[in-house]
Design brief:
The protein has 175 residues and is α+β, with helices and mostly antiparallel strands. The chain is 25% helix and 34% strand. The chain contains 3 helices and 10 strands; from the N terminus they run βαββββαβββαββ. Strands 1-6-8-2 form a 4-stranded mixed β-sheet, with helices on both faces. A 4-stranded antiparallel β-sheet has the order 7-5-9-10. A two-stranded antiparallel ribbon has the order 3-4.
């Protein structure tokens, strides 16, 4: 499993040969390709979660766009740990895709895609939920919200407990 650095990213993340597809990119996420890729003959449950940019945030209206930044060298190991945790917790998972975007995104653009195939729907739903929750809680990815009243940085974990990967802004992370 390898995530190309954003600076050297391919035009679109391409699906791997194996059963896990992890990616960090600065181009539009291949949501339909991820959904098609996870399908396997032995898996009857496919769940796809797509997180998109919305026009508001907690306490803010008029969000016009977001900018995502990542501590790229740490995203790959975090996504690999999340994938391992999903597969350990839900051993029936057939294929798993976790793709995240960085750079500027307009309202309605896809920021993150999690796609899971498992033999049954319950396991597929649970695995997808675990994957997105763990990515939001642990991946060093920040978003800068632009709205009618200003601009502000924040981590992408508003619903997740604060963990060891926390930092207030991308500028506080040193490489």
């Amino acid at each position: 499993m390898s995530i190309p650095p954003v600076a050297a990213v391919a035009p679109e993340p391409s699906a791997p040969e194996g059963d896990t597809w992890l990616g960090l990119t600065d181009v539009a996420l291949p949501t339909e390709a991820a959904q098609q890729w996870v399908v396997r003959p032995d898996c009857g449950g496919v769940v796809v979660f797509v997180g998109t940019v919305r026009d508001h945030a907690e306490g803010r209206t008029g969000v016009t766009h977001l900018e995502y930044e990542a501590y790229e060298e740490q995203v790959e190991p975090v996504l690999e740990r999340v994938a391992d945790q999903v597969r350990h917790t839900h051993p029936g998972v057939g294929r798993l895709a976790i793709l995240h975007r960085v750079g500027p995104l307009a309202v309605t653009d896809a920021a993150v895609v999690v796609a899971v195939a498992a033999p049954h729907r319950d396991e597929a739903f649970a695995a997808a939920r675990l994957a997105i929750d763990e990515v939001k809680a642990s991946a060093p990815i920040w978003k800068r919200e632009h709205w009618d009243g200003g601009v502000d940085w924040g981590r992408c974990d508003h619903d997740a407990p604060r963990g060891a990967a926390d930092a207030a802004t991308p500028a506080e992370v040193t490489t």
